[in-house]
Design goal:
This protein is mostly helical. The chain has a single domain, classed as Amino acid/polyamine transporter I (Up-down Bundle). 76% of the residues lie in helices and 0% in strands. The protein contains 17 helices and no strands. The relative contact order is 0.20.
Length: 447
């Protein structure tokens, strides 16, 4: 990357060096822990049965292989739009880079809406309104609006808030897990009918696909590269630390939930499983404490994800891969893209349920991830000094999991598979149309 490259140069729109290693880890764990524990535990248990803690391990292994490609490129070319930069480096400023970047951005927006609805479900649980058709989406939109306000205050504010909330939720969740495991007498109720009861290989792979969503928050770190202190070293360090921290927390909580509840009980309370798991050991006080913890965790996850995807969209705009309109708004381009992200996430949170949001996120993320691995392993292998076997393994694992998950969803919910296919086609088609118009001298600024 040349400093004279206008698409990659530092800009006063970014606060270069404003995120320490600690803040960067907080952003990564903020996204991962918020989504993985509170939004996905029940859905993963529904597929994996008593083996659901191992699905988190499998998801971490797959994510670890995937992270290798991002770490290698980000260590050589740190950028405020990390994923977009990787794709442009690998494929050039064309349709593949634009559409795959938008797939990544949309998968992150999907995660925000998923976590926002989880926030609502936990917040309304004490009032018995967690199934209320209007209250859940309204509250989800409000928490997204609050995350927007904090993001518009600047990256230093985001870093401080993310660091504080990450510390609170990691300590609180680990304490919850430890108390739950201790009070159970080290038993595991979820396996009371056997470890493989009702769980097949296909279902476990499907559960792993959902677990990957719990770890894909590491990409948040690559999208913040321009604002990280010593990004050449700290982006990779932050990704590794975030993955290991998140896995440790997931396992503690998974065993705590499985110790307190049977598999069917976890499934029945899948949108608020942690709150129900706290009841046997801690009573109503434990439920209330868990709800508060969930609100902190999910809100910080939305905050961190919004920060990362807005930076990515701003970089895509600078690369002239997507159009941009300020709609009369003041502020910088990242401010504008933050608003766009909030509006889209709010719309999805209002109209999609948790299961379908998660499934759409799996399709978009895994497809984009495979495109990344092909680009890094084929185009950038020598430039960033990758080990081919690691990149190939990451691609194969993604392909197996995506194919298995798609077959499962075709049987249980073909509509969401159709939505995923149509969404992908629209992203590629609109990218082709825009770039064709741009090549003919069309304007990139549309408003």
């Amino acid at each position: 990357m040349s400093p004279s490259d206008p698409d990659m140069s530092h800009s006063n729109e970014y606060e270069r060096g404003s995120l320490s290693l600690l803040s960067t880890v907080a952003l990564g764990t903020g996204v991962m822990i918020g989504a993985g524990i509170f939004a996905l535990t029940g859905q993963i248990a529904e597929l994996a049965g008593p083996l659901f803690p191992l699905a988190f391990v499998a998801g971490a292994v797959v994510s670890g292989f995937s992270a290798y490609s991002y770490i290698r490129v980000s260590s050589v070319y740190p950028s405020a739009g990390g994923v977009a930069m990787i794709l442009k480096k690998a494929y050039g400023p064309g349709v593949i880079a634009a559409a795959a970047s938008l797939m990544m951005a949309l998968s992150m927006v999907v995660s925000q809406s998923l976590v926002a609805r989880t926030f609502s479900t936990y917040a309304l649980r004490p009032f018995g309104l967690q199934e209320q058709a209007v209250a859940v989406p309204v509250l989800a939109v409000l928490v997204i609006a609050a995350a927007l306000a904090i993001n518009l205050a600047g990256s230093q504010v985001v870093g401080r808030v993310a660091t504080a909330t990450s510390a609170i939720k990691i300590v609180g969740i680990v304490l919850f897990g430890a108390v739950g495991i201790w009070s159970s007498g080290l038993s595991f109720r979820a396996a009371e009918h056997g470890w493989t009861d009702g769980t097949g290989v296909g279902a476990f792979v499907g559960a792993t696909a959902l677990a990957i969503l719990a770890f894909k928050g590491f990409t948040t770190i690559t999208n913040s590269g321009d604002e990280v202190v010593e990004p050449e070293k700290n982006v990779g360090r932050a990704i590794i630390i975030s993955l290991l921290l998140s896995l440790a927390v997931y396992l503690v909580v998974a065993f705590a939930v499985g110790s307190a509840l049977g598999v069917q009980e976890i499934i029945d309370a899948r949108d608020y499983a942690l709150a129900e798991a706290a009841r046997p050991a801690l009573g109503s006080v434990g439920v209330t404490a868990t709800v508060i913890l969930a609100l902190v965790a999910t809100s910080s996850g939305i905050l961190a994800s919004m920060f990362a995807v807005s930076r990515m969209l701003a970089m895509l705009t600078k690369m002239k891969l997507i159009p941009h309109s300020h709609f009369g708004m003041p502020g910088t381009m990242p401010d504008h893209t933050t608003v766009y992200v909030a509006v889209l996430a709010g719309g999805m949170a209002a109209f999609f349920d948790l299961s379908r949001i998660a499934s759409l996120g799996v399709f978009l993320y895994l497809a984009m991830d495979m495109i990344i691995h092909v680009g890094v392993g084929w185009k950038l292998r020598e430039e960033v000094d990758t080990r081919s076997w690691v990149v190939v393994t990451a691609f194969v694992l993604d392909a197996i999991i995506l194919a298995t998950f798609t077959v499962m969803r075709l049987k249980s919910d073909p509509l969401i598979v159709g939505v995923g296919v149509v969404t992908t086609l629209v992203l590629f088609g609109s990218s082709w149309w825009f770039l064709r118009d741009a090549d003919d001298g069309g304007a990139h600024e549309v408003g």
